[in-house]
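In response to reviewer comment 3 from the previous cycle, which asked for concrete evidence that the modeling workflow produces usable outputs, we include below a single protein chain processed end to end. The sequence was submitted unchanged, and the resulting structure tokens are shown without manual editing.
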Amino acid sequence: MSSPELKHRRKTFPPLSECDLSAVSHRSIAADLDGTLLKATLSFPYYILMAIEAGSLLRGLILVLFLPLISVVYIFISEEFAGKMLIFISFSGVKIRDIEVASRSVLPRIYAADVRRDSYKVFDSCERKVIVTANPIVMVEAFVKEVLGAEKVLGTEIEVDPRTKRATGFVAEPGVLVGKWKKLAVMKEFGEDLPDIGIGDRKSDHDFMSICKEGYMVPKDHSASLVSSQSLKTQSFFQDGYLERPSSYVVDYIWLPFIFLFYPFRGYLNLSLIEGILKCIYRRM
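The workflow returned the following structure tokens.
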């Protein structure tokens, strides 16, 4: 195997379809989440849902209003800074316990409806499975461990005020896990026995993929086949038939707080603007 330094200079990777699991024994894998194991490339809808479920309808609305600005920052300035903006607006001042509850009770069902069949097949074939993501660990840990069967999540740590047990809105060092920080996290976790396979879907994944023994890119495919709930590791999240709804309508589950102006009870209004913004971003990526 070539040294990690030599591999790091390699900036092109074959598509995931060229990964022959029958040819070599692959014991370990490091995989990105959004756009890699999940068909959806962007995490905006999940943050909006978390902002509403863990915070309030008003917080969700504020995040939606900031989406155009966050999108511009993501595309033209910095993926890391855009991630910090998402985290601050979504979680600042929210009780960490509420974030944990929402992450376990709501997100796994929605995430599970969007798992790609091709990348999950490669991921599930390995013995040691680690997720490397820019998302907050507290937000995705329940899903990736209990539904995908991952051993560990390497992700962004949210700062929590020890006195109030509320998220400060900021992230702990080294910050949002993108680019070189993903690489360093993988090196720290695996030590000298680096992953046999690394899979990702964007340039910011190249850093950690380059130190894996083999690296594969997961191509964007909005019509990619999805994994059925029966093929996942647990059924405990899926007892209400939730996954019967096509995952391409995941944005339809993100309701916004306009309806309370007309009805006295809590409700969510589907805002097509969100889907339009996300489709526009997909075309620019």
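The first strand starts at residue 28 and ends at 31. We consider this sufficient to address the reviewer's concern, and the full set will be provided in the supplementary archive.
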